[in-house]
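**User:** You know discrete backbone vocabularies at least as well as I do. Would you mind producing a protein record, from residues through to fold? Write it directly below this note and I will take it from there.

**Assistant:**
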Amino acid sequence: MRKVYLIALIIFAFIKSLFSQGTFEDYQRAEKFLHFNVYNLVQNLYLNPNWIDKSSNFWYKTELENGHRFMLVLSEKNEVKPAFNHQKLAKELEKELDKKVNSDSLPFSKIKFKHNLKTILFKVDTLSFKYDVKKNVISKYTPKNDELKKNESKSPDGKWIAFVKDHNLYLRDTKSREEFQLTFDGIDRHDYASPLDWYKIIDESKGNIYDPSIWVEWSPDSKKFIATKLDRRNAKKLYMYQSLPDSGMRAKVWSYERALPGEDLPLQEYYIFDIETKSNIKADLEPLEDLWSGFAPNWTEDSKTFYFAQMARYYKALDLYFIDSETGNVRNIIHEDANTMIEYQMVGCKLINNGEKVVWMSERDGWSHLYLYDGKTGELINQITKGEFVVRAINYIDEKNEVIYFTAGGVEKGRDPYFKHLYKINYDGSGMALLTPEDAEHEIQFSPDYKYFIDNYSRVDLKPKAVLRRLFDGKLIKELQESNIDKLLATGWKYPERFTVKARDGKTDIYGVLQYPSTFDPNKKYPIIDNSYSGPQAVNVPKSFRRGIWNDWTPLAEVGFLVMRIDGMGTAMRSKAFHDVSYKNLGDIGAPDHIAGIRQLAEKYDYIDTTKVGIFGFSAGGYDAAHAILMYPDFYKVAVAAAGNHDHRMAKAWWPEQYMGGPGDHYIEQSNLTIAKNLKGKLMLVHGDMDNNVNPACTYRLAAELVNYNKDFDLIIVPNHNHSQLWGNTYLIRKRMDYFVKHLWNIEPPKEFEFTEYK
């Protein structure tokens, strides 16, 4: 009997070890896939071309097993070769540095070609070198210091520097060094050329020390520049309490200017400055509220006209203005209205022949499309693109041949509508042609002469390849590099599974990815975790391979979970109707689609356990995570909410005003504070005490409401961490893993596992 009992114990222990999750070994395996380690397992995920002057020639770095090489591409000759003799340069550099230099791992990462590709310049630490590629001669040199201060801006011809001093604009002749004061009425918080900075923090113990920066836009002929006069006198502040300052025992209070929804915004006026006369004129416009309009202002090529777009408050209207550089007269060329809101990412324009015509991007027919306008009369000439697809950007206009190059998603049927492809089309809408045929996400970079482009294409389940294509017809010129992911595959890593399910309406396709652990066993039941970010400006589901591995969900999957990302209704880059689901409705968070998607996946896969569903997110995803467990407490059982904007009345004005309109009862109804009483599951709140993007008060206030309702929850405040620093904090990565292991698997995780960064 004792022998049978022992055998039973051994079998039980074996089965437990076989199917256990959240073990020390799982955490060790997860460590490999942390964002700072996973790139050690892959090579050449992305080719970044460094264009040489204004030609179609470029150099790039290709990664080797233990280093890198510099490659030179001569596009017109269809030639790829080493940029120089790496072995010879290494030997010459050894003499200069008096130490060993590995030719496969040269101690510099950037080069610059000079003298018709005969010379390269590079820097090792503080030493600058030039190397004659043909003669194999290396020498030190002292580079000319052209570095500008942050309060300076140089003209395109290099003859003038505009700079800010004592809240006013000045001009300096770069040759004679003579200075000219251009304005005299600038004062503190109502000054010239000062860019609005919502993230600049002020040590309240020292006060707002004047620290000038500059924004000016030079005309191409260097004879004029435009700048704004920004009135911030009514700007209000938000505060942060730093309990752990760099020195001393007294805590510090920091502040930053931030308008909340409905509050007064800074006002700006445009001024045109004439270099020859040292005078300026004000554009004939009333002061404009400082709103993000989606694309930057610019000059026409002939330097006669300055153009910019201006959103109306609450983003229901958009205007394109032309300013005459001689008179300051302003013409309203295009006016756009929307019943809901105008998405700042779905607007844009490019001018033809110095504004004779305008190619304009709009969602007016329900999809993001291109329209051709008369730049003199403002009359619509014709709609250029049509159909159920989304134009993502106007990339280039070939004026000579009257062809527009643009990126779009959803044109190719049967493909993921979020994949970006490059197309060309004639001004009249005829001749639309696909230039990037592969069923993948295409990341495009054009040569300065617009004869060629680099196409980095991949999917989360297709390793990246970089190719050189000819622009006018997309012809493949050269395959440049393909990534090496052998080490990644050797770990047992599994490609994410792309899936399509139906949205809440039972008709609309929605898209997602499912990440499996490398130890996945289809005969076992797995909890599923929703990694949510329903911010309406974003696409949460990764489309490229590199974004698919640089993440925080693969390590979590490795400790025993299926992790899902999905883009529900209300998110970006689909139809206007799809997007508008979130308008004045951020509290929807796409949850009905997420829940429907999980249930459909569970119908397909027996190994998904819908009784154990978790959710986590960061920033707007932190709001999602808390909102989901409070709104759907019988579905979501465990949530980790990091840096969440839990009440949109406390957020920066532009984001909630874009998607929620003006303040009203819907802000209160959709606040996580309002539904705090609903908590049934396990909730962990996380925030950095120096977060000047989403103020930590958002999390403190939700915590206060949970305390008021006598709810059990966990709270982590990370000292000296701002918004971006919080995302990659290894302590929090581990605590999130622990939280899900403990509350979804109901086992104790390894105590205080410490992640290591591989070198």
